[in-house]
Amino acid sequence: MTKTSQKTVLITGTSKGGIGDALAKEFHRKGLRVIATARNLAKVQHLKDLGLDVLALDVVDPTSIQNAVKSVETLTGGKLDILINNSGSGYSQSLLDSKADIARKMFDVNVFALIEVTKAFSPLLIASKGKVVNIGSIAGIIPLPWAGYYDASKAAVNHLTRALRIELSPFGVDAINITAGVIKTKFFDNLDTPRLPEHSLYAPAKDLIEPAMAGEGLEEAGMEADVFATAVVKNVLKSNSTKDQWVGGNTFIIWFASTFGWATIWDVIVPKLFKIAEVTKKIQAAEKSK
């Protein structure tokens, strides 16, 4: 494959050990020119060592985004075949205890940056009639307690991708949403250990809630990141890609419930998964003891 015919993919958030890292390696194996980005280039040095292009990109910094666009224009001659919006941030906290400033920062990364990066690279994508791929989550479908703001940010990704698909279609650019299930990554390791505030209304049940906030037990249902990457890359490289791809641990049951269930089905399923009845008992017992 010559440089002139070699397709180029840019991936945001490719720090070692994450989904972006696995995607970068898989696209590279498939023969694409991969531009792996991260805020800190030290975290993508391993990809550079493998022969991938690496680029500093902070997705919430307009100057960094514009600099990245200029660099890609120079590298590719003004085209970009695939943009993977993978950068993401998390926030585990009960909504009653949440802090709006932290939630806003997360939305900046998960939601607003996704559009800002796509806008900036749109001329290059239009030039190649390329594809935008946004990494969503089952958290945008199922209302996970103690992570409501994160859930909402991923629900926004789902909807924005559908809107992008329609709005970009006049230019021959496609938009694909990946509804990612549970993947074995360092996602929770990269978060500060989530804790309920000392005076939280939920404090009597913190022994149940805090492990859930930290993602305890999810690893068992997780898909290996390289397996996830293989499935995603295979779909993206198809001429007629699946527009809404579900891949990862627990995706089938959530897809099935959301597709065939009634509107409030999660009110039945989620409380059982997260032991809400036990949480309620602990809170009520604490109230009675006052």
TrEMBL record:
GO function terms (MF aspect): acylglycerone-phosphate reductase (NADP+) activity; triacylglycerol lipase activity
Annotated GO CC locations: endoplasmic reticulum; lipid droplet
InterPro entries, A to Z: NAD(P)-bd_dom_sf, SDR_fam
Pfam families listed in its UniProt record: adh_short
Keyword annotations from UniProtKB, A to Z: Oxidoreductase
Swiss-Prot/TrEMBL GO biological process terms: phosphatidic acid biosynthetic process; triglyceride catabolic process
Keyword flag Oxidoreductase: yes
Family under the similarity heading: Belongs to the short-chain dehydrogenases/reductases (SDR) family.
Protein name: NADPH-dependent 1-acyldihydroxyacetone phosphate reductase
Organism: Lachnellula cervina
Gene it is expressed from: ayr1_4
